[in-house]
Amino acid sequence: MFNFGSDVKPELADIDWDNLGFGFMPTDYMYIMKCSQGENFSKGELQRFGNIELSPSAGILNYGQGLFEGLKAYRKYDGNILLFRPEENAFRLRMGAERMCMPSPTVEQFVEAVKETVLANERWIPPPGKGSLYIRPLLMGSGAVLGLAPAPEYTFLIYVSPVGNYFKEGLAPIHLIVETEMHRATPGGTGGVKTIGNYAAVLKAQSAAKAKGFSDVLYLDSAQKRYLEEVSSCNVFVVKGNVISTPAIKGTILPGITRKSIIDVAISQGYQVEERLVTVEELLDADEVFCTGTAVVISPVGSITYLGKRVTYGSTGVGLVSQQLYSALTSLQMGLTEDKMDWIVVLK
Ligand code: COI
């Protein structure tokens, strides 16, 4: 078992818990595990949180050979600490690692490393109802490489940061613009895995949208520019009557764990859920639209702007379906309702 240094005490950190946004805050410890190309990860360790040293020629810096994950830990009123489906993140990282020619930790190694990191940073987990501890696992080609090739060494690292709402709107509806020129992903590319380059690729469209007052960007498929893909940092759902539709996973869309969970929650609540091609016309004709993601959780969409035309949904408040699914999911994640799906891992 890891021993805390004498300067680190496991009570709550002294920060403003009432005003957490989604910004980086350094904590006490990070987890690091390394392995060479062609080998398996075997043993990692907790280290004091701090900068890491990389060769300027590291694979991740030169060729973007890297993946990340995102999951959250919640503190319950009874003192328990809960993780939500961490093994799903482990599976997704393994899938991405295969696509990016990297070795990856086993599911057990991943989950164990997450648990150790969360417990070592326990005092940074927000009090119940104030937010969560965002857990950011990274897998990167850390070895030096000059010619284009997989790096000779890999680092698996986990750091954490206490967070509140992702969008500055909080739970209020966000405003999206549909991007018709720039694309997030292409068939056969890496849009379906959580590689770092997917996120750098959306910064230009996202910055332009924010400069015009939009919250974020909704991307269309690159071949026909007609079918919905996802928003920069989350998946999208369209509600029409009792039917909730979301773009099917087909290589260009990130298989979100919140997306997958919301599909199951919605079905259990009697909605018909369709994973298929969803057209931009259906989006504009929807009763309600919402986004899902680990960071975002569920974010209702208040308006969509497409080719200069703005469509609004409902009045100014949160749509009924979004509200219902948000309550069901977050109650589960925070341990307020019975975990019938067996999704929660109790840390202590
Ligand atoms: C997450 O939702 O965890 C993500 O990885 C998205 C990221 C841009 C914050």
TrEMBL record:
<dbReference type="InterPro" id="IPR043131">
    <property type="entry name" value="BCAT-like_N"/>
</dbReference>
<dbReference type="GO" id="GO:0004084">
    <property type="term" value="F:branched-chain-amino-acid transaminase activity"/>
</dbReference>
<dbReference type="GO" id="GO:0008652">
    <property type="term" value="P:amino acid biosynthetic process"/>
</dbReference>
<protein>
    <recommendedName>
        <fullName>Branched-chain-amino-acid aminotransferase</fullName>
        <ecNumber>2.6.1.42</ecNumber>
    </recommendedName>
</protein>
<dbReference type="InterPro" id="IPR036038">
    <property type="entry name" value="Aminotransferase-like"/>
</dbReference>
<dbReference type="GO" id="GO:0009082">
    <property type="term" value="P:branched-chain amino acid biosynthetic process"/>
</dbReference>
<feature type="modified residue" description="N6-(pyridoxal phosphate)lysine">
    <location>
        <position position="194"/>
    </location>
</feature>
<dbReference type="InterPro" id="IPR033939">
    <property type="entry name" value="BCAT_family"/>
</dbReference>
<keyword id="KW-0808">Transferase</keyword>
<comment type="similarity">
    <text>Belongs to the class-IV pyridoxal-phosphate-dependent aminotransferase family.</text>
</comment>
<dbReference type="InterPro" id="IPR018300">
    <property type="entry name" value="Aminotrans_IV_CS"/>
</dbReference>
<dbReference type="InterPro" id="IPR043132">
    <property type="entry name" value="BCAT-like_C"/>
</dbReference>
<dbReference type="Pfam" id="PF01063">
    <property type="entry name" value="Aminotran_4"/>
</dbReference>
<dbReference type="InterPro" id="IPR005786">
    <property type="entry name" value="B_amino_transII"/>
</dbReference>
<keyword id="KW-0032">Aminotransferase</keyword>
<dbReference type="InterPro" id="IPR001544">
    <property type="entry name" value="Aminotrans_IV"/>
</dbReference>
<keyword id="KW-0100">Branched-chain amino acid biosynthesis</keyword>
<keyword id="KW-0663">Pyridoxal phosphate</keyword>
<keyword id="KW-0028">Amino-acid biosynthesis</keyword>
<dbReference type="GO" id="GO:0009507">
    <property type="term" value="C:chloroplast"/>
</dbReference>
